[in-house]
Design goal:
BirA Bifunctional Protein, domain 2; three-stranded antiparallel sheet; 8 helices; mainly alpha
């Protein structure tokens, strides 16, 4: 399915996941909108590391492109009737040049197909061995200042990254506009291949003004239960599919989460439990 992406949505699993994600996204906005929160669009590219932990994906324009463009002279022909042997000679040379270019394109296509095959093998080998920097970029073309990358020549004028969190942006809006939230993609470049660590994921980040810790905990509990109820009401067939094929007892566990009051423990109690 990774090689034939347009077939993914035709499978039962991808279809069910997509419909449930759609419901969760809609329920998220409905929950916070019904409670008077303002939806804030936070930037995906940022110059600050909001959380100060973990690795970030860097965004820059100072690195040279992978493929250098090749400029080719184009022949221009016209329909004017030749009046001399010299003009006939020019036309004939243009025709021969066009034929030669056509043959060259065929050879280029064949060479490209062969190169693609070699590229696939090379990429497979690099995945096994790990990428080498010299295979990716020509570092001699990177602007330097005092042996460091000169980001003044970058589009952003300083190091920029894909955002790991929109929290700082939402906080600035909450100061002037009261309760706000952001809901969108965030990125982490952590070198982990477990199911609990994703490079890209959607995160909900609410900011409540003049709220106590108890208010925050109640908001989190109400939000989780609201989303589960919405999915149970609108995607029961998809949940039944997962209950039967993927995770037995899923619906019962989700219902238990809805019906059970969340427990609260202090930091000290949590440390003792651990």
């Amino acid at each position: 399915m990774r090689e034939v992406a347009h077939l993914r949505s035709r499978t039962n699993t991808f279809g069910a996941v997509t419909r449930i994600r759609n419901s969760l996204a809609f329920a998220t906005h409905q929950f916070f909108q019904n409670r008077g929160f303002l939806y804030i669009h936070t930037p995906l590219i940022s110059t600050s590391d909001c959380e100060g932990a973990g690795e970030m994906f860097q965004v820059t324009t100072v690195l040279p492109p992978h493929n250098e463009p090749i400029s080719k002279a184009k022949l221009q022909t016209h329909d004017k009737v030749p009046k001399s042997e010299e003009e006939l000679k020019v036309i004939e040379e243009a025709r021969k040049a066009a034929e030669a270019e056509k043959e060259a394109k065929k050879a280029e296509a064949a060479a490209k197909a062969e190169a693609e095959g070699k590229k696939v093998k090379k990429e497979k080998k690099q995945k096994e061995e790990g990428p080498r920097e010299q295979d990716l970029y020509n570092f001699t073309e990177i602007p330097l200042a005092d042996q460091r990358i000169d980001y003044k020549k970058d589009m952003f004028g300083k190091p920029a990254f894909l955002s790991v969190s929109g929290q700082l942006n939402v906080e600035t809006f909450a100061v002037g506009l009261s309760d706000c939230y952001t809901f969108g993609p965030t990125f982490r470049a952590e070198n982990s291949h477990t199911s609990r660590h994703l490079c890209e994921f959607w995160m909900i980040e609410p900011e409540i003004v003049f709220a106590t810790l108890q208010d925050n905990m109640m908001c989190a509990e109400d939000y989780v239960k609201f989303c589960l109820k919405y999915v149970m009401m609108n995607n029961l067939d998809d949940l039944k599919f997962f209950d039967e094929r993927v995770e037995k007892g899923l619906i019962a566990r989700l219902q238990k989460v809805i019906d059970t009051e969340f427990k609260r423990v202090s930091y000290t109690e949590a440390i003792e439990i651990l």
